[in-house]
């Protein structure tokens, strides 16, 4: 009886200790269109979030309207989504969103076809799924298809559906939820590699990086009112970005490849082989998540986004003479405001190169 009682006591003590540690973590709500990016997977699985005292909840975003409205209302601490969305809402509608860093340059950003579609020409006379016909990846989709001689409204139409996860599932069946046929959509990391590995595989008919590069894809976005860290340089937002910075550095270091692959596999519930392909996409020097150091923004990549939006008439509410080059200069209160990122650089906690906390898990 004494032995059983002692075992129970120490087991209870262990449970209470774990509970106390979890309770001590600050909640952090992470909104994402792209699901688990490689940087997020590393931050979550390797312990960068916990090391910053954060209990992170990842909330997938079903569509742009919901995502950015929720961010403005304080429902997310940070949001990862296309910079085109932010450019559109900031310049056309003066909505107060701020980009604190660049997550990636469009890893595995592709145009994928439904069953039976093997080339861009197969889209003629059909519908393609988008999150929003006026924002996100719709403009670059128009750009690539126009280079193939297809024009929106004449040769194909847009079907407004929602986020990438929803479009991916519908694409596999070739129909929308109501049974309407669909021919294709834009896919991103991590769905592209899943599409290639599907049985039967989903056809990849074009890669955006073959037509425009660099292309600033996903941005770390916050409410503009949260962009000044001076009153609380150790806020949950600053620590959240610090965790992502640490994860980004870990992902960038080639000696950590095996551990990063393991983290991607665990966080996404996929095989090691598929995770290795995801890792390759995330570390691609042209379009990956590690193309820029410490979430620095590619000015040319951002100008390419603006240029493509301009070509499809995506700045109807911007006044004549608006200086886009000046508008993307970083500074307090502007579209690009790096004060949170800079404060986070002081808090980064790195894992020793080559060490993997997942080795014995």
TrEMBL record:
The name on file for this protein is SsuA/THI5-like domain-containing protein
Q: Where's it mainly located?
A: periplasm
The segment(s) forming the SsuA/THI5-like domain are 36-167
Q: Which InterPro entries match?
A: SsuA/THI5 (IPR015168)
The places in or outside the cell where this protein is found are: Periplasm
GO cellular component terms attached to this protein's record:
periplasmic space
Asked whether the UniProt record includes Signal among its keywords, one would answer yes
Mind listing the UniProt keywords for this protein, alphabetically?
A: Signal
């Amino acid at each position: 009886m004494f032995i059983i009682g002692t075992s129970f006591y120490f087991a209870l003590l262990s449970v209470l200790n774990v509970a106390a540690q979890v309770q001590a973590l600050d909640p952090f709500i992470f909104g994402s269109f792209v699901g688990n990016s490689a940087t997020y997977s590393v931050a979550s699985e390797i312990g960068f979030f916990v090391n910053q005292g954060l209990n992170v909840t990842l909330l997938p975003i079903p569509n742009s309207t919901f995502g950015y409205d929720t961010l403005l209302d304080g429902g997310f601490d940070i949001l990862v989504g296309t910079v085109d969305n932010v450019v559109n809402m900031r310049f056309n509608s003066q909505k107060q969103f701020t980009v604190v860093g660049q997550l990636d340059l469009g890893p595995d950003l592709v145009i994928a076809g439904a069953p039976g579609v093997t080339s861009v020409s197969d889209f003629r006379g059909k519908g393609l799924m988008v999150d929003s016909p006026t924002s996100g990846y719709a403009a670059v989709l128009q750009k690539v298809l126009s280079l193939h001689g297809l024009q929106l409204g004449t040769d194909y139409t847009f079907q407004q559906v929602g986020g990438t996860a929803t479009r991916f599932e519908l694409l596999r069946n070739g129909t929308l939820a109501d049974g309407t046929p669909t021919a294709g959509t834009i896919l991103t990391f991590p769905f592209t590699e899943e599409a290639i590995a599907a049985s039967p595989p989903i056809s990849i008919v074009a890669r955006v990086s073959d037509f425009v590069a660099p292309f600033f894809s996903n941005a770390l976005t916050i409410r503009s009112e949260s962009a000044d860290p001076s009153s609380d340089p150790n806020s949950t937002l600053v620590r959240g970005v610090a965790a992502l910075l640490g994860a980004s550095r870990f992902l960038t270091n080639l000696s950590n490849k095996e551990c990063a692959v393991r983290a991607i596999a665990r966080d996404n519930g996929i095989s090691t082989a598929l995770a290795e392909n995801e890792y390759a996409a995330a570390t691609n020097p042209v379009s990956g998540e590690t193309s820029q150091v410490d979430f620095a923004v590619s000015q040319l990549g951002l100008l390419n986004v603006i240029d493509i939006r301009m070509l499809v008439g995506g700045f109807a509410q911007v006044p004549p003479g608006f200086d886009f080059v000046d508008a993307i200069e970083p500074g307090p209160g502007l579209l690009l405001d790096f004060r949170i990122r800079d404060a986070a650089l002081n808090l980064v906690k790195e894992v020793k190169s080559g060490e993997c906390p997942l080795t014995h898990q």
